[in-house]
UniProtKB/TrEMBL annotation:
Residues 400-423 are annotated as: Disordered. InterPro entries: GH, GH10, GH10_dom. Belongs to the glycosyl hydrolase 10 (cellulase F) family. It catalyses: Endohydrolysis of (1->4)-beta-D-xylosidic linkages in xylans. Keywords: Carbohydrate metabolism, Glycosidase, Hydrolase, Polysaccharide degradation, Signal, Xylan degradation. The keyword NADP does not apply. One of its GO terms (biological process) is xylan catabolic process. This is Beta-xylanase. It comes from Asanoa ishikariensis. Residues 56-354 form the GH10 domain. Its EC number is 3.2.1.8.
Amino acid sequence: MTEVHLGHRFGDVLVTVLDVDGQPLSDREVTVEQRAHDFSFGNIGFELIALASGESDEAAGLADLWLDVFNTATLPFYWGPFEPQRGRPDTERLHRAAKWFVDRGCRVKGHPLLWHTLTADWLREASTDEVEAAVRARIRREVADFADVVDAWDAINEAVIMPVFANERQRNAITRLAWERGRIATVRLAFDEARAADPAATLLINDFDLSTAYECLIEGVLAAGIRVDAIGLQTHMHQGYWGEEKTLAILDRFARFGLPIHLTETSLVSGTVMPPEIEDLNDYQPESWPSTPAGEQRQADEIVRHYRLLLSHPCVQAITYWGLSDDGAWLGAPSGLVRADGTPKPAYDALRALLKQEWWLAPTKLRTDDAGRVHIRGFLGDYLLQHADHTASVAVSAPGMSRTRARLRPRSEHGHQAAATWR
């Protein structure tokens, strides 16, 4: 097993604690506790949309499990389901869902703005010029309508195969657009429109094809002057855990572009793994695909190894696990961290132990010195200092030692600590 080092994920802050009058609070006991991670530990929020939008409260238990571990929600903007009838997008409902996550201190990412799969079928007979105009308008509309709650987007998804995804009989409007305009021009279209609608948004190029074809596309995109904020890598491991050596080699290949890396779609199964000869994961459709005790223990061990390795790489900025529950999981795979009956699997407990114990500072009592200083060491993120009924916010924002001053305020002045954004 590859040895991993996480020192770059931790920092030290020497805090001078000031009382309400701005004087150093010397020789007093203070409590420090972590409130949020800077790192983006994500999961899809698809399963919670009905609850978050106020349509149903059936998923309340699942929401508690989700919020106890994750700080970033990916929400679905697949064009076909989002706008089944032209001019009637599902904006209001999804906006309510996004705000529900934001109100609970989470970041929200939209997935995706442009993709050839699950696209609007009503565009099929339109001319290519009409398709391009509709795509541009759709991207501007979604990014602008959700700018207050969504701060990151998969601007384009799976552009490597987009022009050649299907034969002529199956080709839809988006594959035709990419075929006629070319990959780089199509990528530019998506990024330009999204950037114009929200210049502060984090925009990703995202793909499952992690071959040299994706590297060549990224090279061409960057050479064309298109500004990409992060590279998205999909890592659905339905055919078994890739292992540290393979995963690290992939990370290093894409790290050469000098951009943050987001692991946008990660999954590990807790049952029988998919046969290796399956080329397209969508082609594997067993009658049943149950989670098993042995598979659940394997999944737990693998998720710890995977997350440790990903965090050891300095370019990795975000990880999104693809689904909390087995109920409705992609391809029917037992890839969730929670069983279909709502009970957590060992993988959920193992991941929670990493994020909320090993990489989390529990409430700790410290004593200020004569100059009112305390030393905080912890995972990069937001912290809260408390003395009596007064508090102060402190950020551990970079590896190494830094110094700051924190003035105590009445506790009522400190609300919920929002998670950091990518901006």
